[in-house]
């Protein structure tokens, strides 16, 4: 049992009802206040400057790591250290810790979330995107190939993935310009060049790794948890028309690498342990190196909303991370089975997460069924894909026994083509 996960712990910091940031969460992020950048956690609406906490001598490790502008240095200390620090934070802010509660100096570390700018939490070294939701792969297969053979023959044997681009992964609040590129809207006519017309989100989650093993070594499904630091929400922006024309034979390229947006708080895998749930039934049987323990999926409620400019949002999807066919342990085992090494700060996304029900589809491609159906917005307009000046908002949280461990939001406004 991880100490900080104890559901009986209460904190002396005020937390509003249904806050994503319970005292059992204790995520990590990089915050900026005025000119100071520091490693932070969040409890309720209070952002805690962990560098200040460290300077006051509350942690068992050196303070310098908390003055960093990225979590990579913290992750390089390994799982035991990051787990200990999370437990220490839990103890500092425990309601029974009278000594600390009345410490005036510590108050300096507490900042209202509204006064804080959240920065990119991790310097992402390599980014891999999987394709691990069966319903999503099935839907795409139905639309573009054949409903009777929607899944390609390899899909239930291999956690399919591709190497994406790390430089264009940006934090919530960073706007994305509509990409331009080549498209081929009509089969019988030559391609055209211009702004993407079928701009889409992909509802995904990503995990961030600790330093892995040496080149040539593999990480087993049993070992995988020890190499995963935490998770965030991941909006993998996609230009469907550019993708359709360019993806043969080597897969996605410019349709994907113009931007992916993440939520700023990295929720540790430790904090998510209480929300484990059964993995998907896998048939046919998987290879031995992909076999894993039963309770390896995680029950995380996911939501997507579209907010046209100057008006209310409309929720267009309610999905769940537990729908994954291949889980993180299997993804990481597969990624390294050939000896590929992973580094601290690598990011691996799940692939679009769609549930069986239409209301749980994780992309506009599926929600509008390739543009054949419109979705009504609260302001009376309609969407098949994402329009200029729309803001896409993704949210996610796990909840059990009235304890919520959430991710907050990833909020991205789409600007016109540059
Ligand atoms: Ca994707």
Please write out the topology.
Blueprint: E1 29-33, E2 36-43, E3 46-49, H1 50-55, H2 72-75, H3 79-92, H4 98-101, H5 104-107, E4 110-112, E5 117-119, E6 127-130, H6 134-144, E7 161-163, E8 169-171, E9 176-177, E10 180-183, E11 192-195, E12 199-200, E13 203-209, E14 228-235, E15 238-239, H7 240-246, E16 260-262, E17 267-268, H8 269-272, E18 276-277, E19 297-298, E20 301-307, E21 314-320, H9 328-336, E22 347-349, H10 364-367, E23 375-376, E24 382-383, E25 391-400, E26 403-415
Parallel strand pairs: 6-22, 8-16, 9-26
Antiparallel strand pairs: 1-2, 1-5, 2-3, 3-4, 6-7, 10-11, 12-15, 13-14, 13-22, 14-16, 14-17, 18-19, 20-21, 20-25, 23-24, 25-26
Bound molecules: calcium ion (CA).
CATH architecture field of the largest domain: Alpha-Beta Complex
In DSSP terms (H or I, runs of 4 or more residues), the helix count works out at: 10
Largest sheet data = 8 strands, mixed
Low-confidence stretches: none
Q: What form results from the Cα inertia axes?
A: globular
Number of strands: 26
Mean pLDDT equals 97
- What class, by secondary structure content? alpha+beta
CATH homologous superfamily identity of the largest domain: Fumarylacetoacetase-like, C-terminal domain
CATH class of the largest domain: Alpha Beta
Q: Which ligands occur here?
A: calcium ion
Cα distance spanning the termini: 51 Å
Q: What is the total domain count?
A: 2
Radius of gyration: 21 Å
The CATH topology label of the largest domain is: Fumarylacetoacetate hydrolase, domain 2
Strand content: 25-35%
- Helical content (DSSP H or I, runs of 4+): 10-25%
């Amino acid at each position: 049992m991880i100490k900080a996960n104890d559901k009986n712990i209460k904190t002396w910091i005020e937390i509003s009802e249904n806050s994503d940031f319970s005292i059992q969460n204790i995520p990590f992020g990089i915050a900026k206040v005025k000119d100071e950048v520091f490693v932070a956690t969040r409890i309720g609406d209070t952002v805690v400057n962990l560098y200040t906490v460290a300077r006051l001598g509350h942690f068992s490790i050196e303070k310098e790591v908390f003055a960093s502008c990225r979590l990579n240095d913290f992750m390089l200390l390994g799982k035991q250290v990051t787990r200990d620090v999370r437990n220490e934070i839990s103890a500092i802010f425990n309601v029974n810790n009278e000594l600390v509660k009345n410490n005036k100096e510590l108050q300096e570390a507490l900042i209202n979330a509204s006064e804080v700018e959240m920065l990119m939490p991790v310097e992402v070294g390599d980014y891999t995107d999987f394709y691990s939701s069966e319903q999503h792969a099935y839907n795409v297969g139905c639309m573009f190939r054949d409903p009777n053979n929607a899944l390609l023959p390899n899909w239930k044997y291999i956690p399919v993935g591709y190497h994406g681009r790390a430089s264009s992964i940006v934090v919530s609040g960073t706007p994305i310009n509509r990409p331009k590129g080549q498209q081929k809207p009509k089969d019988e006519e030559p391609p055209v060049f211009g702004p993407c017309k079928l701009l889409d989100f992909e509802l995904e989650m990503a995990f961030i790794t600790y330093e892995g093993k040496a080149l040539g070594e593999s990480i087993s499904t049993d070992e995988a948890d020890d190499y995963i630091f935490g998770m965030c929400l991941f909006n993998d922006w996609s230009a469907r028309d550019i993708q359709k024309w360019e993806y043969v034979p080597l897969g996605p390229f410019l349709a994907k690498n113009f931007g992916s947006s993440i939520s700023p708080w990295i929720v540790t895998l430790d904090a998510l342990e209480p929300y484990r749930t059964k993995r998907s039934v896998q048939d046919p049987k998987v290879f031995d190196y992909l076999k894993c323990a039963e309770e390896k999926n995680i029950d995380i409620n996911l939501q997507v909303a579209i907010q046209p400019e100057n008006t209310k949002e409309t929720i267009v999807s309610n999905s769940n991370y537990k729908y994954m066919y291949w889980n993180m342990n299997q993804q990481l085992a597969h990624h390294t089975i050939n000896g590929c090494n992973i580094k601290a700060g690598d990011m691996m996304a799940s692939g679009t997460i769609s549930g069986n029900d239409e209301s749980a589809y994780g992309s506009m491609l599926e929600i509008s069924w390739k543009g054949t159906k419109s979705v009504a917005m609260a302001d009376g307009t309609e969407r098949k894909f994402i329009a200029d000046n729309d803001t896409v908002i993704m949210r996610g949280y796990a909840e059990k026994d009235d304890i919520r461990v959430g991710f907050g939001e990833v909020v991205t406004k789409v600007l016109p083509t540059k």
